[in-house]
Amino acid sequence: MKVIITGGAGFIGGNFVNYMLEKYRQYEIICIDALTYAGNLETLEEALADPNFKFFKADISDRSSIYNIFEEEKPDIVVNFAAESHVDRSIEAPELFLKTNLMGTQVLLDVCRKYGIQRYHQVSTDEVYGDLPLDRKDLFFTEDTPIHTSSPYSASKAGADLLVQAYHRTYGLPATISRCSNNYGPYHFPEKLIPLMIVNALHDKPLSVYGKGENVRDWLYVEDHCSAIDLIIHHGRIGEVYNIGGHNERTNLQVVKTILRELNKTEKLITYVTDRAGHDLRYAIDPTKMHDELGWFPKTSFDEGIKKTINWYLENEKWWTNIISGAYKEYYQKMYQNR
Ligand code: NAD
Ligand code: TYD
Fold it and tell me: What cofactor does this chain's UniProt record say it requires (predicted)?
C-alpha cells in the first residue's frame, strides 16, 4: 500500500507520518510538502532516515508538479493535510488561503480522479461549522450541523470540504472527510495558542490572551487525531463525513493558567490584548458517529495531554528555538506589538 500524505512536514501531518511509519511497516509513505514557514524537515528527521519513506518538496496547487509525482508513484491512498492553517494570518492576508486550501485541494481531487485512487481523505476542521454560543453547553457540532464560517481560514476550508463532497457525488471519487477540533501536542508551530504560551512562559514573556479569554476550544491530543484518521481511511464509509474530538473543552484562560501552573510561572505574565476580529466563541464536537461506527474515542484527557506536551517542549528546545529565531520573529513583532 502506498500512501501520499500532503502537508506532512507540518504539525498534524508530521505526527501522522510518524504514526503511519511506525504502525504499518509494510506501507510506503510518501510526503508532499511545499515547506512553507509552517513546514519543517526537522519534524521528519526520523522519517527521512526510514527506507519506507519518501519526501517531495512541491506545492499542491502546482498542477504539473503534482501530476508528475502521481505519475511516478501511483499511490493507493491520499490524505490531504496541506493547508494554510492559522486564523490570524488568514485575517491579515486571505488570498494564499484560497490558493492553497481551495485550489490546491482541487488539484489533488483532479489528480486522484485521473489515477483512480482507492481513497482520498480530506482533513477538514470543525471551524467549518462556525461557532456555538458560550451559554448553551448543551449544544455540540454534529456532522449535520450546517456549514457557517467566520474567518477566511474557515471559509477556505469549508470551500475545500464542499468541493470534496461534489467530486464524490459528481465523479464518484472515493472520498472521506474528517472535521476535527483543535489539536495540540509535539511539533506544534509556536504561533498557535498552546505552544506559543509554553514558549513565552519559558522566556517570562507576556502571554497575550485575546479579549477576556472566555472563548472555548475542544482540545484533542494529536495522537488521537492520527488514530481517528487511520480508522477512517481503512474502515470509514466512502462519501461520509466524520467529526473528531470531544469532551475536552476549556476556556483559553483555563488553558493559559494550566500552562503557567505546570511551569511554575506567575499569572502576572497574562496580558489581555485586543480581541481577534470575528473571533469564534465556542467549538465543541459530538463524536458519537466516530464512536458508534469506528469504535473511536479520544484516549488522552486534556490534563494528561498538556503535561505530555509541556514535557515535549522542555525536552525538544532545539526544535522550537530554530523556529523562533528565524523569519517567525518578524511575524511575531508585527502581530503582537501595540496590540
Ligand atoms: P500546519 O500549518 O502546522 O502545517 C501545514 C503544512 O502544510 C506545512 O508543512 C506546510 O509547509 C504545508 N503546506 C502549506 N501550503 C502548502 C502547499 N501549497 N502545498 C504543499 N504543502 C503546503 O497545519 P496543521 O495544524 O498541522 O494542520 C494540518 C491540517 O489539519 C490542515 O488542513 C488544517 O486545516 C487541519 N486541522 C488543523 C487543526 C489544528 O488544530 N491544528 C484542527 C483541525 C483541522
Ligand atoms: P489558535 O491556536 O490560533 O487556534 P484557532 O483559532 O484555530 O482555534 O487559537 C486558539 C484560541 O486561543 C482562539 O480562541 C484564539 C486564542 N488565542 C489567544 O488568546 N492568544 C494568542 O496569542 C493566540 C495565538 C490565540
Answer: NAD(+)
